[in-house]
Write a structure and sequence with these properties.
Helix 3 packs across helix 4 and helix 4 runs parallel beside helix 6. Strand 1 and strand 2 form a beta hairpin. The longest helix has 16 residues. The chain has a 6-stranded mixed β-sheet, sandwiched between helices. The chain has 6 helices and 6 strands; from the N terminus they run E-E-H-E-H-E-E-H-E-H-H-H. Helix content is 42%, strand content 17%. The chain starts with a strand and ends with a helix.
Length: 164
C-alpha cells in the first residue's frame, strides 16, 4: 500500500484484508469484482444479474464496491464506474478521511483510479499528454502496470478527467 496523495492510498487485496479492514476511519474502493462485488450482491453465477440496481456499483457504508474486471478491451470499463469512484474518493478526502483504493494485485485497476483522481482533482500530474501523466504517476506508484483495457480506457478518456 502506498500513499500517492495525502490520505489517498493505492494497494492490493492483501492491504485491505490484512490491515485496513480491521481499522476504523478508512473509506475503501474495492476496484475488483472478485470477491467483493460478488459477496455484496450475493450472486453465484459468473456475472452479476444485469438488471440488478447495483450491477455496476454497490455501496456499503464507507465502502464502494465496483463490478470492475481487468479486461483487455476498454469497452468493458464503464465510465460510470470510474466517475463514481472518483467522486467517492474526493468526498472522503474532503472529509479528511483516509481512502484505500485497491484491486486484487494493486497494479492495474486501483492505480488507474488513483491516476485519474490525481489528474482530475490535483496538480500533481502533468496535463500535457497522457504519456507524461502516466510517467509521473509511475514515479509515485512504481507498481503501476495497467492491463490493456484499463490503459486503453484511460488513454481514450484522459482529457475528460483533465481540467482545462
Amino acid at each position: 500500500m502506498k500513499e500517492v496523495h495525502p490520505n489517498l492510498f493505492i494497494g492490493n487485496q492483501d492491504d485491505y484484508e490484512s490491515g485496513v479492514k480491521r481499522q476504523d476511519g478508512w473509506a475503501v474502493v474495492h476496484a475488483c469484482k472478485e470477491p467483493y462485488h460478488r459477496q455484496a450482491l450475493g450472486y453465484t453465477t459468473q456475472g452479476a444479474p444485469k438488471n440488478h440496481p447495483e450491477y455496476l456499483v454497490a455501496r456499503r457504508g464507507d465502502r464502494l464496491i465496483l463490478n470492475m474486471v481487468d479486461a483487455d478491451n476498454p469497452a468493458y470499463i464503464p465510465r460510470e464506474i470510474i466517475d463514481t469512484a472518483l467522486v467517492f474518493v474526493h468526498e472522503h478526502l474532503q472529509a479528511h478521511r483516509r481512502v484505500l483504493v485497491h484491486c486484487n494485485e494493486g497494479g492495474s485497476r486501483s492505480p488507474a483510479i488513483g491516476l485519474l483522481y490525481l489528474l482530475k482533482y490535483t496538480d500533481k500530474l502533468p496535463r500535457t499528454s497522457f504519456s507524461e501523466a502516466e510517467d509521473a504517476f509511475r514515479a509515485l506508484y512504481p507498481l503501476y502496470n495497467p492491463a490493456g483495457g484499463v490503459r486503453g480506457f484511460m488513454k481514450q478518456n484522459w482529457q475528460i478527467y483533465r481540467p482545462e
